Amino acid sequence: MSSDMNKDFEYLEHTADAKFRAYGKTLEEAFQNAALAMLNVMVDTSSVKNSSSVDIELTSPDLDSLLFDWLSEILFVFEVDEMVFGSVRVNELNICDEECSMSATLSGEAMDLSVHVFDTEVKAATYNDMRIEKTDDGWMIQATVDT
Hints:
Layout lengths: L8 E4 L5 E7 L2 H16 L9 E9 L2 H18 L2 E13 L4 E11 L13 E2 L5 E4 L4 E8 L1
Antiparallel strand pairs: 1-2, 2-8, 3-5, 4-5, 6-8, 7-8
């Protein structure tokens, strides 16, 4: 499958939820762009000052589970810590036979309804139509989030 490596992510048609494809030359970059695609469903990430950061470390039994856990963890921090994020960096991502792991840093600031314009609430990550594929140009992630 070929991908459009000029895009970080794109949104696909979906009847009820938000579906997107994220691209990257590396799997780490594709995970970063998947996070930004989901975050941009909720808020314009360009309006966020990246004055604080949150480190995330995850371990999951396989790559699909790692992506699901990644997007779910971002939603958890968004809701519980009431922070919005404008920048995402995946520091490390390891794929082994028995488990996958990653570490990442989310940068953003406290949620401020007078500054941040919210669009669509994302309720949860899903496994629906999830795809993680190596392409000729790098990696493509397709994900759907429940809105």
